Please model this.
Amino acid sequence: MCGIIGYTGEKEAEDILVDGLEILEYRGYDSAGIALCQADGSVRISKCAGRVKELRALCKEAGFRGTCGIGHTRWATHGGVSDANAHPHQFGKVTLTHNGIIENYRSLIQRYGLEDKLHSQTDSEVAAAVIAHFYNGDPLAAIRKAVLKLKGTFALSIIFEDIPGAIFAVRNVSPVVIGRAVQGSMLASDVTALGQYTKKYFVLPEFHVAVLKKEGIELYDMSGEAASWEWMTVDWDVDRSGKGGYPFYMEKEIMEQPEVIGETIASRIREGIPDLSGDGIPDSLLADCKRISVVACGTAMHAGLVGKALMQSLVRIHMDVELASEFMYADAIVDEDTLVIAISQSGETIDTLEAVKYAKKNGAKTLAVVNVRGSSVARASDYAFYTNAGPEIAVASTKAYTTQLAALYLLTGRMAYVRGRFGREDAERFAKELLRTPEAIQAVLDRREEIHYIARSILNAKDVFMMGRGLDYSILLEGSLKLKEISYIHSEAYASGELKHGTIALITEDTPVVAVVTQGKLQSKEFSNIKEVQSRGAGVILFIKETFDMDRNASWDGVFRLPAMEDGFMVMPASVALQLLAYYVSLDKGLDVDKPRNLAKVVTVE
Ligand code: M6R
Model:
């Protein structure tokens, strides 16, 4: 979590840094700050608890000027949310910003006698102190020596008071991208913050030190030798980073889904069938594995659950879906016959990344389904399937999720074909239906005001239960997470058949239930389960495939008829309907939809 940015060049740095922090704010928004190198060599810091807009006002008031500086937006880990714990941190001649966690900060405090010398409760200030300890005029040597003492994850951007105009950066795991822009050099936690200035960037290799100057960039390895890097190109439309007239990114990103899903799918259908050769994914990878393990977190893990249902029924292959944070600690069984699929929007989620490393160490083949090109998970994996969601800024994932689903459909379709479960005609039929998903989703979006109306019935609920069976249950797990994270309503998704094994005790007239019914073979059982909760007084909101019959005599708190696709594809329109439900609840409660409390978009701490 946390976003870092740096600029050195011809221009005044303040606005460049603060504008960049506004873009990076989704990574953490507890506090923010910048440090500017003044013309006289001194470093001036403006920082405060609160959002970037408060920092902007503070900077204007302070009136510091400088053409070189670093900035930070924080998601608190060590130390509460306060002005003092906001970054940048200064110790001696060293000023730095940090993304990550220095795990051994306590022992470093003891070892370097820092007990009474620190001004914050952060691990980051300790890193500044350790660098300052080793600094005697040679910044590269000091950084190299200090970094070897740090345990944990870090992306550090550092300025030295007596070296004006230069920014030093080093990292382990936590990301840093670097580019030439605005008549100077820039660094950031991710490319979205650079994208408005340049399309060319490179990812700072781990345990290398980059030196950014007005004139150019230098890179050194840990032995002090000059190193080279590989330029990459931002391949998404920078316009997609704005709100495009919507009040929140989340609404804009929900509305973009027909387009981005269309792009994700259409580019992988060749001669009428799913084809992943353009992604460099060989058929042998899909044909030869004996089992699949998905590793992912949060929404991405929920996408994996849909993938599991698809793979098991269409490919008949054993597939596990594991929370990445539990994977290696549970001594997961993976071997050379296992295909491990890591799903991640950001490609920077540390648990997912560590799970990939564990899988590789155990001989598994790894495939990343990732949105952000060149991200850590993509680079760590043997193969990458890039979803075409474009930048997703809202903390609540929407288009990233549905493009992950699209990727899993494509993988399933191709796998079924290369393993002989699908003949050519089956594969064509599958691809044809998949290509219909953008239009089905558009049909939901066109009727979004109906969902807005329905959402009002749960606005004041304290608890909401969600129920469904099979694929419907998988997407309700995600629908429930969406509602929790942006509306702060407690919500639980339940497999309908499981409710009566305990949880039904909580169902009363005060616990609205959201039910999704899209699977023909489960329809009648589902309606029996719905009756069970209605009999206990719960009001039910029903999302149902439009071609299914429903009990017209029952009373519903709301009914939304979902555009019909084949049952196996109904998760697409139904998921979008659930996203809209959560969105409108949050919107009507007057909450900050894009930046829910306590969360950050990219989770780079374990
Ligand atoms: O970037 P990732 O897809 O790896 O992120 C995983 C989760 O942190 C993420 O999906 C999270 O659950 C979202 N906030 C949910 O909307």
Summary: The first strand starts at residue 3 and ends at 9. The CA atoms of residues 109 and 115 lie 6 Å apart. The first helix runs from residue 13 to 24.
